[in-house]
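Protocol step 4 of 5: obtain the predicted structure for the target chain.
Materials: sequence only (see below). No template structures provided, no constraints applied. The aim of this step is simply to have a reference model before the mutagenesis design in step 5. Sequence pasted as it appears in the construct record:
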Amino acid sequence: MSVMTRLDDKEDITQHEISALKTRFNLADAHTHQDQSVTQREIVNRLPELWYRAQGQSQYQSEQEFIQAFFTFHGQEHALKRHDEIYLVYAASIAMHITATYLRKRNMRVGLIEPCFDNLHDLLKHMEVPLTPLDETLLQSPTNVYAKLQSAAANVDAIFLVDPNNPTGTSMFAKGADTFVEVARYCKDHGKLLILDFCFAAFFKAAGGSRVDAYAILDDIGTQYIIMEDTGKTWPLQDTKCATIMASRAINPDIYSIVTSVLLNVSPFILNVVTQYIRDSSDDDFESVRSVLDVNRAVARRHLQGSFLNYLTPMVETSVAWFEILRDDVSADDLQAYLMAYEVYVLPGKYFYWSQPQAGQKYIRLALARKPEEFEQAVETIALALENYHG
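Step 4 output (structure tokens):
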């Protein structure tokens, strides 16, 4: 089948996402493609003003306004005590590349959560960092996570976790901070570097919750860490975004030297724009983001839950939906290729299971950050396609 051949030759999720941009219904990438809210449209109308404002203030002022707004919005005030050691980069993948460079320079072995978004694995693989999978189920209970890590992470130097996890929504913080505290304690006691990808952490707030101050916990325990955060999966910014990277004091000088070898600064105009979106969400309690995701998630469940697909309820609802394929005779690759004939592009689960791709053939991922009317058309099309599926 020509479609199947064309899809199977992709090496990673990003290559799929590039192809998906050409389809009518792109449910592949988790970037934000929904409309602007009323107040966000007002920000767009102010773009000339924000341009000249950025031009008229120092780079440092633009950076610090963004840092103060972002970390306050997320409830991570402890990090602001070292606000000059929060480094800004123009994409989360750059922060990950900086982290991978640090790991490679020190010949560190890494335990990487599985499943997870595949470019984490790919960046580390390309830097020739030795990897061991850590099943995300290790992190589901505070009562035995320490003991489980003693076994699973004994032979690694660093533990790399994503929270909430993409694509499953698994989180150490879903029921408070206890599990995270145990992970941090284990890393401190056993000399492990803890690397945290918090790029989906805004969805704690989108789900109506709040974030634990992770930086305060880590510094109180004395855990060595590198933490990455992002704006690109949260607001409808057309990829006008900024990511952050911060490290514990002991390793900060080493991280800083890698940061400065990569870039000088993020555009002050972009920082001004993104800061306005953060403040807007502070004012509306994240309603503009939350409402779109809630509507689309409900539509996906209503149209797709059935004998073919099963919606897997996450610990933390994010901007993606993770579905299990219930038919044993249909793989994720099969289903993706079939839906392409209906001009719908979804992601197969195999790329998230980086050490055992076959385990991911039971799952597909749908992106939710879309215009609700277009998203409903997409899932209605999927539902019709599934009714007509004959294998």
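Step 4 remarks: The mean pLDDT is 93. The CA atoms of residues 194 and 225 lie 5 Å apart.
Proceed to step 5.
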